[in-house]
What we know:
The chain has about 425 residues and is an all-alpha fold. It is built from 19 helices and no strands.
Amino acid sequence: MAPPLSRIFGWLMVAALVVVRLHNARVTPAHHSFDNYGHLWYLQMSAGGQVPLPNQGWQNYHPPLFYWLSGRLGAWFHQAAVPTAQWISTVAGLLRLLVVGLIARQLVPRYTWFAVVTAAALPIDVITAATVYNLSFAYFWCALFLWLMIGAWQEARIRVWREVLLGLVAAAGAMSRPDGAILLVLLGALWLGRMVRTGRVDATLSAFLSGMVALAGVSWFWLRNLADFGRPFVFPTDWDMYPNPMAVRSDFAFLPGFHSLAFYFLPDLRTFAHPRDLYGFCSLPSILYASIWWRYSEAQRLPSDPYVGPLLLVLGLLPTVLMLVGLRQACRRPSTWWPVLASVLATVAFYTTMLLKDPIWGAVKGLYLYTCFPAFLVCVAAGTQEVVERWPKARPLLYVGFFAMAGVSGWTNWYPG
């Protein structure tokens, strides 16, 4: 078990990062968000309680739950919709830290705080959680769904209340972001795993129940879009709905070799020296890694010190490597880790589909992997456990690395306003 003193310092670090998030939610301006004008326009149109059509704005293909809820709560409490949306996103991010801790306690109870510290320090989440952006909100539903899914997988008895709750959470995730529909796929993965493991008829009945609840929550939106536009807008790949899709495409440039195997599998180490030039590297792993660990931090502070970005990228290697170690351990124990593996497989399959349809999505940002971030975080805890058990003398180095990573992330992502 991790020494009590280290756990105390770990939870203190989490508390410090929570303060960073609360500070950012209070001082971050409304326009400081990714694709800010599209999301602000969507929020403004939703403030009256209506659900805009996908062709009424650049970001209006997104499902409406986050924007509608922000507008309604703002009206009920006589607050502006924009700060209400920022606080909803922030609170969702804080609740997600709790859920990540619960997930880690289910699978790696002795090393929970490693997963929570990583979740609290992840730059892509710290930044987007304080803005008018639906990522943090949808990310919460993904974490909550994985927690419920693991509980359902571990318990042989099928409980009706849990199946209904799984369906409701899946619907909430699918109505928060287009790629949240992956949660409906995970309902099918849970059914498949149960059938393979037990072959019981009630596994099919429970899947039918949770699936019907989920579809009841999302079908109205998909059917409306299908009737009006000929497509349900389940995933964010309908570029031709934009007023000028080629103007959007022209914002991103790819070097020769984008379609080569090397682009998809070989990292580009120049990322660590020039993290701002994300779109100039012929390496998908480097683009994803840099966008998760630095891209949004760059927009937040723009530090004059040119070594801050590379330092954060180097420190992010520790939880990334531990995540890969934990993922390997999960692959060795599918009977226990099936929900985690299913989450990763479903997200990777979705992302691959997006790349094949339109390669621009691969180079934009790594946030399209957010549906499996909770699974990755619990793998960080599992990887830490394996490393500590094999090499006990490495424990102090791991603690120092995590504290340094969290400290640099907190300082870099503290909005200076």
